[in-house]
Specification:
70% of the residues lie in helices and 5% in strands. The radius of gyration is 26 Å and the shape is flat. It folds into 3 domains: 1-75, no CATH class; 76-135, no CATH class; 144-194, no CATH class. It has a 3-stranded antiparallel β-sheet with strand order 1-2-3, with helices on one face. The longest helix has 21 residues, at 2-22. Helix 1 (2-22) runs antiparallel to helix 2. The chain is built from 11 helices and 3 strands, in the order H-H-H-H-H-H-H-E-E-E-H-H-H-H. By secondary structure, it is mainly alpha-helical. The chain has helices at residues 2-22, 28-40, 42-45, 50-58, 62-75, 77-85, 90-96, 119-134, 144-163, 168-185, 188-194, and strands at 100-101, 104-107, 110-113.
């Protein structure tokens, strides 16, 4: 049994190293191998801690290995396909994830296949998307009815929370929040705006 575990560990290590050598950037297959090694504790069969395995056998830091595993879990295979064609941070991918599906990214209403030949178009399109995302959004003006509905929802939530037994710290925080709100409402600007014309 122990020999089988060592062979299995060696197989996963070999796969991970092969993917690391083949790809100049990380692939989802490499991330999957790292996940398997960590989840099965295959590194322990080699007499290594997870951190030692990452630096000595995978050639990356533990932190980076865990980031790769996390990206695979959160985004799946498509994130890695896209990131091999264009530099995409996890934050950027979260913002554009709705445009990426079935090995295609939709840019300006046009589906573009995630293949190396389309890399320049994809990079340019992502830069345009990022620029649009950085543009300041116009302020939203709510009607008085909308504001009243939002205020009533908040007051209802606070009342529901206060009706239950609360730990002393949470009760103090809730009281502090109420006092803060009352003082804000008593502020001269609010009182002045509330006077009839």
């Amino acid at each position: 049994m122990e020999a089988d575990q060592i062979l299995d560990a060696a197989a996963w290590v070999g796969r991970q190293q092969a993917f690391a050598l083949i790809a100049s950037k990380c692939s989802s297959a490499q991330a999957e191998c790292l996940r398997q090694i960590k989840d099965t504790a295959a590194h322990e069969q080699l007499g290594l801690t997870w951190e030692e395995f990452c630096t000595q056998r995978a050639g990356i830091s533990r932190r980076y290995a865990e980031a790769l595993i996390g990206r695979l879990a959160e985004f799946g295979d498509t994130y890695f396909k896209l990131s091999q064609l264009a530099r995409v941070s996890p934050d950027t991918y979260r913002q554009i994830a709705g445009l990426v599906h079935d090995d295609v990214i939709e840019i300006d209403g046009q589906p573009i296949a995630l293949i190396p030949e389309n890399a320049p178009r994809i990079r340019a399109g992502i830069q345009r998307l990022q620029a649009r995302l950085r543009e300041p959004k116009p302020p939203t003006h709510h009607s008085v009815v909308e504001l009243q509905m939002r205020l009533e929802a908040i007051l209802r939530e606070v009342s529901d929370r206060a009706a239950r037994p609360l730990p002393m710290g949470e009760l103090a925080a809730l009281r502090g929040m109420c006092i803060f709100a009352i003082n804000k409402w008593r502020a001269p600007k609010v009182l002045e705006a509330a006077k009839p014309a």
